[in-house]
Automatic annotation (TrEMBL):
Any one Gene Ontology molecular-function term assigned to this protein's record: oxidoreductase activity, acting on paired donors, with incorporation or reduction of molecular oxygen
Location of the region described as Disordered in the Swiss-Prot/TrEMBL record: 300-335
Domain of life: Bacteria
Residue ranges with Basic and acidic residues bias: 315-328
Keywords for this protein: Flavoprotein, FMN, Monooxygenase, Oxidoreductase
Official protein name in the record: LLM class flavin-dependent oxidoreductase
Pfam families: Bac_luciferase
Length: 391
């Protein structure tokens, strides 16, 4: 039987968290949501061998496995870099790849990273594409909103890099229009004030099933927090204290409080997610030894490899500022926002700490995705249930 979009009052103000039966609302009932942070790029972070692959088939199998395990979310970064900008030469587009996974999964939310200002992508296109994928995935497809922080990416599309806060103003106008297109019952027109496009008698049907697709923003700046508080359901936060888990647990509570209070000022709620690299072995000694081996195999400074701590491409991302605070342990820089290294019991202890700090979900990164996901399922997931982190 075909699904029809619910019709609550003021649909243009509704998001999927306002519908108790939406896939996002069901996911948010977990004490700690579990996500998988895919690498759809040819990333060679260290010389230590892995099974990892940028290919669709490899990543699709990971997402199907995560879906079977009860994970709630999957998404990946997307980057626009010139030749030589990746460790290898291959990088799939997250918009297409995650959307395609709707046909082979049942419950997991599929979040496509989209640089919403590049091109520009016209709101009618994005609204129509989004509504179509929303129906294919039955409310499980969403957008990770990226405004772009590397000058070289803007330049690839014929732009000069847009000033940081102005990017969020432009994105806010775009998503105000998208909300209208996804909810209006009559044709809708809008003349872009900050963006170089207009909508004249725009109309999108079918409407999304739960007001609009789930929206995610990764940010840490005041302008980004304000945008996320107005528009997003999930906010991908960084640790102000650095990658070391103890520093993260110390600095995250105040950071998250600012964000959630900002959302409350708009009469909204947001859920926070963070991206830990989990390196787990049967003992702490084994886990630390493996982490040390990964770090020892990182590429030399001065190359463009992903494993370098300093990007060769000019970035004005604010979320990572302040992470060099010498008063905090800085971690190993193993490719994620924070690092959790230890035995299964120690990993769960730190996940409990993240929950207490205000984190609602973790987007897990693994050094060897296939092998480490299986280990997580066998050794860590049962302990998470015992600790009350999973229903």
């Amino acid at each position: 039987m075909a699904l029809t979009a619910p019709q609550p009052e003021h649909l243009d103000l509704k998001g999927p968290l306002d519908f108790n039966d939406s896939p996002l609302s069901r996911a948010a009932k977990q004490p700690l949501m579990l996500g998988l942070f895919l690498n759809l790029q040819d990333i060679r972070f260290s010389s230590v061998p892995t099974s990892n692959s940028w290919t669709f088939d490899y990543n699709a199998e990971l997402v199907k496995r995560a879906d079977e395990l009860g994970f709630e979310i999957a998404f990946s970064r997307t980057q626009w870099l010139p030749k030589g900008g990746y460790d290898g030469e291959s990088s799939l587009d997250s918009f297409i790849a995650l959307g395609a996974m709707a046909a082979i999964t049942k419950n997991i939310l599929l979040i496509s990273t989209i640089h919403v200002l590049y091109g520009p992508l016209h709101p009618l296109h994005l609204a129509k594409y989004g509504a179509t994928l929303d129906h294919i995935a039955k409310g499980r497809w969403g957008i990770n909103i990226v405004t772009g922080h590397r000058a070289i990416e803007h330049e690839m599309f014929g732009w000069q890099r847009i000033e940081h806060d102005k990017r969020y103003d432009m994105a806010s106008e775009l998503f105000d229009v998208l909300h209208r297109l996804w909810s209006e019952t009559e044709n809708f027109s809008h003349e872009g004030k900050l963006n170089p496009w207009a909508v004249n008698n725009g109309w999108i049907t079918p409407k999304p099933l739960y007001g609009r697709p789930p929206l995610v923003t990764a940010t840490g700046s005041p302008a980004g927090f304000d945008f996320a508080a107005r528009h997003s359901d999930l906010v991908f936060v960084t640790s102000p204290g650095g990658a070391h888990i103890d520093s993260a647990l110390e600095t995250l509570p105040d950071h998250i409080t600012v964000l959630k209070n900002r959302a409350a000022s708009y009469g909204r709620q947001v859920k926070t997610v963070i991206n830990p690299m989990v390196i787990a072995r049967d003992t702490e000694k084994e886990a630390l030894a493996f982490a040390d081996a990964i770090e020892a195999g990182k590429p030399q400074p001065g190359t463009r490899a992903f494993g370098n701590s300093a990007s060769p491409y000019d970035s004005d991302a604010h979320a990572w500022r302040g992470r060099s605070d010498p008063s905090h342990k800085q971690g190993r820089n193993l490719g994620s926002n924070i690092e959790i290294i230890g035995s299964p019991e120690q990993v769960v202890e730190k996940l409990v700490g993240l929950k207490k700090a205000g984190i609602d979900g973790v987007q897990l990164n693994f050094y060897d995705f296939r092998e480490d996901l299986d280990y997580f399922a066998d050794r860590i997931l049962p302990l998470m249930k015992e600790a009350g982190l999973r229903l």
